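Submission sheet (multi-component)
Chains listed below:
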Amino acid sequence: MAAIADKFSRLSALKPARPVAARPTALRAPDEEDSLARLLGAGVAKNHFGEHLSVRNWFSTPEYLEASSASLDLLSRSRDESLSRRTRAALTDPEKWLFLDTETTGLSGGTGTYAFLVGLAWWDAGGLQVEQFFMRDFSEEHSLLHELCGRLAERPVLVTFNGKSFDWPLLESRFTMTRSIAVPKLAAHLDLLHPARALWKLRLGSVRLVELERHVLDVPRLGWRRDDDVSSALIPQFYFDYLRGGPMEPLAGVVRHNQMDLRGLAALFGKINTLLSEPGAAAETQSLDLFGLSRFLQRRGETDRAHLACSQALEIGLPAEFRPKARRELALMAKRRGEHERAAEIWQEIVADPQDGIYACEQLAIHFERHARNLSRAAEFAHLGLAKLRCQRSASRDPFLAARSTWLEQKFLHRIARLQHQMPISDGLARPLALSRSTGETEAESRYRHR
Amino acid sequence: MPESLAVRRAGISTAVTPVHEALDAFASRDHTGEVLTAVRHFPAREAQWAEFPAWVHPNLVSAYAAKGIRRPYTHQAAAAEAVHAGKNVVIVTPTASGKTLCYNLPILNAILENSDTRALYLFPTKALAQDQLAELYDLNQRLENCFGVFTYDGDTPADARKAIREKGHVVLTNPDMLHTGILPHHTRWTRLFENLRYIVIDELHTYRGVFGSHLCNVLRRLRRIARFYGRDPQFICCSATIANPGELARRLLESDVEVLDANGAPAAEKTFVFYNPPVVNRALGIRRSYINESSRVAQEFLNRDLQTMVFANSRLHTEVLLTYLQQANPQPPGKPESIRGYRGGYLPNERREIERGLRDGKIRGVVSTSALELGIDVGSLDTVVMAGYAGTIAATWQRAGRAGRRGGSSCAVLVASSAPLDQFIVRHPDYFFGNTPEHAFIQPDNLEILINHLKCAAFELPIAPGERFGDADLPDLCARLAEAGFLHLAGENYHWTQEAYPADTISLRSVTSDNFVIIDITGAPNVIGEIDFPSALVFLHEKAIYLHGGQQHHVEHLDFKERKAYVKHVDVDYYTDAVRHTQVRALEIAEQARVSESHREVPAARAHGDVLVRSQVVGFKKIKFFTNENIGDGKLELPENEMHTTSYWITLERPLLQSLPFSVSERQSGMFGLLHALESVATFLLMCDRRDLGTAIGERPPDASVGQTFQSVPSLDPLSSRDFTPSRMEDVISANTKEFFEPNLYLFDAYPGGIGFSEPLFRTHHLLVQKTRELISSCGCEQGCPSCVGPAGDLAPRAKEAALAILDHLCA
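Outcome: structure written.
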């Protein structure tokens, strides 16, 4: 028998990943479940699947902010989907909105990850009603999901932060795992992560909800402080410890954390709606946010507004590092709108830019070839682009850049060959291609070299 | 003894083909008759045709007809009928016999009849799945793309995955992806699992040892999830020829399986030749380099414009052979290179281009690793040259199967290296050409492996009371996992309670996930690889020279706590060889017997059971390249590595040793030589790698020698030297001043928990000793060489004689 005991003690598959809570589950006193409810300020919710805890709180902040249908339309639109009338009706009805945020036993997803705390919120009486479902053990999951199903039937427009790729697929998976509760149908799912990223990533670097609260939302108005907030990284372990008879106090912190996330989400929803609803709000918006807004609008196909926001951003003044990028986008937008002369003007401004110069040359060559029909100017810019490209390649050792350069070089050479073919012989720039290939020295180049 | 002339004279083919000319060229140089050890001629075989079964959908019949297949072969029709009848089957056929039709026909038919039907195909490699995709894609086009067929592996783009989960009727994947990418996310695959009717496992014989033991557990999880969605899928397996395909399939699937091993496919006329490079130093048993010889053989064929495929066993040798052959066959100006290399690491497009070039004949020669051994379609070539034995008979036939152009004459040549297995094979052609003795074994109930998969299973679905998972005592294991913090009992079910995702850390190719990361600190720190724990101690100890990608690295520091090894580029003219002490203690004997049941008086016994293996790297030797001189050594203080595993062993009793007319050191050298040879033959019988088995000599426990019964030795002082006998000969000699100790010759599974080799070795003991005797007695060396009892320099003189004398007793 000693050998058998030995056998198990040696198995690395049984080695605990971290020290396990010393207190075994069986030692939990029978009335402790009640004290957990008291600690969380929760009641016991019951249905035919069983029971779980439910926590309800009303908060006066954030306040309800109206959302224009234009803004909702932008947030719900995913490329080519046009909205059905029923969806639109649900979307514009604030009664149908449901904010959702979950606390889970892991971040990796998959069928073994559980949402042990599901937080919901909706606008009510000018403030925010928050309801949280908590499962005291895995056996309470069915009743929790059943309850969630009911709430989603009442309010089928889901609003989340990163819920499209995390919370909702996870919940879908949980519903599927029950084999008895169907996955609820949503009328729409507005996820704020991508809009937030488009709008503020440039300025903030990180668009975690906490960062947004601090830098974008008006913190004092939100009415809470994150000073004693629990770190999200610790949340799964708090729950596992509790399951194994460990302390339940940290769970109160988790519930509070979830409440703050829900309130932050609701506030962020208001903020984004305001930004998207008022095209004229430029004066009080930071230039970088305007640039972000322009990129978001562009992605959603709102070219006019995107163009406006981008020019406004440039007018107010962008930090130097973003200026060429903004100009480049402005030029591309102008091109797409058919304003070729305007686009060419902007391209000429950035020809000297080390990053976008080559691209500007290419665009100008295209412009002069196709739109302005000035072949010699087109060839001039093609040669200039080629020279810049060769210069850049000789300075860099990056193999990927080299491969890309070779490809671009081919494109330029093709263009030059085509232009020369089209140009009358008398044109001063027309001469054997082999020369430019071998020496890389052209008129245009020498003209622009010292600029 | 120019046998090849005999082939020509045999008159089976009237014309003297270029293949025969080339063979004659070898024969005319083989003056001693020792080079061409076997020339076997296989006449062409006619196809045996059947009709498509009546239940096959007419559209499918016409789709096949459009591909040029008007009738199936008899074995294809029989297999399709068995699948149609709902049986689990394993189809055993040689290369290029059309095995894919055996499963595609009934499965596609089922999809045509009911478009909800889903099938999952498992291939051991991504490349094979790609190749099958092309075949199915072609069929699908002829069926107006009425079904969805996709590969799903690490290369599948994220945005395509959703469509595959919904629309894939046939999903082609590999066990690793099933393990980490599909099963843990089964809720996204509901369409597939709710309609899962067929699972195809191709190249079944590759699932043996560690990989097979893992796959069996992955299949347990797969069936468990299928049950959750109300399905009980049917299995269709394909295997190369091994001795026990049915047994392997039954063990893997844990259900009844019908074996179908007829073959109705036609075959081209073929000659199979064993080529043993000439001996250059008879005393030391040194032969000419088999790489150079392989290149010469291939060149004979290429000179006669025969399309040739050369197989090498390592990437390095592939490159060397490619260089030789490209130099000998310079690229004609303005034409593409006619000799190409093919191996993992080439880009998919390049591979496709080479495959095309081989099919249309533009490429005349290709040098490949095992990448082309499995079913990738490159058409048939004229000749195949194998530089070194592929490791198993099954793989060798698969490689040889690449030659066989219909209507022509083809040839496969195996060029032997001086490795013991190669030498054994070429000197005993009857083993190769007769019924294969190769068995594939798995041990899915290895606790280390099983528990890891139990964790994955719990992640996938909570473990309910009354569930079964192999032979494990599930309630007990779950309780242990709960105690360790992995699971939690809620209600009646055990749920997963870790943030980590268990499948991510479990590799199907090794037993435990305890790995060392190798970091190159020559410049900016750069991770260049990883290596499992026991190997790390041997290859990555401080001051070791570690070879990675053909580059030498000096190990600067081995960080045990962080599991990291720091290495730096160096260029030196030596390599290092770790000196390892291995001690084995028998813990529990599962079975024991006399070595000979008919001659019970032979003073030797055999057994198998659980053992404790302790090994420690105590030092290293620096060995100069080319001359193999020992140019220095060092001592090391590394922790001892303990492993609980299973072992087979032979006990040589006192009377046997007393009867041997040799000195103590000769006897002991003989035992080590015998063990070396036993290990070689065991790897051959078990289709495993030398790394998979460990060897040691230890003294039989003293209490057992008295009572004639073996017992487990539970509580002796673990450091007692009577209990542990070091395996290094010099230590045996010094530690055992007694003239006759009773040694156990251990062959143990080199994986914690054992991987299923010990019991088969015990059962096949007679074959093992018999073949070992043949290996040693037929070796031409004088006093031992690496091909039989080990290099002469390491052993006392007469070791070979002593080993044979012991074997004479064992084979009595």
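Remark: The longest helix of chain A spans residues 249-277.
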